[in-house]
């Protein structure tokens, strides 16, 4: 097989770290300076490799090695380049680095694919910044809701439209639903990504082949409202304690989660933020208000609906028993996605050919691959094990594991793209 350029990959990770380190972890803010620097680095690298460079209205980046038959549907790979605040260096970026390492190896050896191969640097995958899922990939297909452009970034308070326009994008075109990608013009999309949980590390597998991607149902701005009262002068029977009501909701939903799992459902439930109002709450007050968020995930839409109904039913019962009121605010979320079986098998075969026994597993986290799959495009994901999970500064992907993943990705891209070597050598 044609070896990917792993020296290039190592340099890119080092440069990304230098451009993104915030003193604690990695911050590549969505439609901000951090993400912009990462995109510039990948574009500069592509230019030196001689790849074609294109950007769309949402500033997604397309780095293309032309094929012999440019009218054929393109083979695509890639991932996102933004990060959560104080995250790790590999989440998302590993997929773009992997694609460039594969193409650099082909270029070095003078091999040309039968059809175009494109590495996509996707914008705005991390919804920590804007309360919208898959901004970059949905925009690429002209699917972003015009209302999403009015959503505000968590730290700046400025709109998505303002951030995109400031960087040279075209929010007006996005609002009109102008598409840069057409499903019928894409042969497949294969995304390499670090695993963001403990499964591969715990079981001793270097690589995982993803079977499906969970969808989500989220309440980002929920509140429970009771009544503030004196902590010493108010008996238990006269309290409308928002903290106690929320604690009861969380405890009961944990029990519902266990029961659903016992019944065969696959899901996760997270109350990721819980805050009293610092301006009103006090050690000598019964808390009258708590803000919180809820994140429900599953590969089954029916499971998400069931869990949501249990959440709302339980909250209604607690309103009656605790004298409080739950307010849920806007709902956001994403659709589950199923990975293509033929591509799953191709990734398994490629991993085995690289000397690695992969594990099949679902992805609890969301990925841009879901957008491609839900457009009817054959889609697959390859996970590389990563110690310490993700969305934290302690991501610890081993470069040998990554090299195995990149080789496996390269084999599948070569197979789908009909790669031809300079002396009729087998590319895989």
TrEMBL record:
GO molecular function, a single term: hydrolase activity
Q: Which UniProt keywords apply?
A: Hydrolase
InterPro entries attached here?
Answer: Amidase_Cbmase, Bact_exopeptidase_dim_dom, Peptidase_M20
Where does the record place a coiled coil?
A: none
UniProt-listed Pfam families: Peptidase_M20
Q: Which family does it belong to?
A: Belongs to the peptidase M20 family.
Protein name per Swiss-Prot or TrEMBL: Zn-dependent hydrolase
Species per Swiss-Prot/TrEMBL record:
Achromobacter veterisilvae
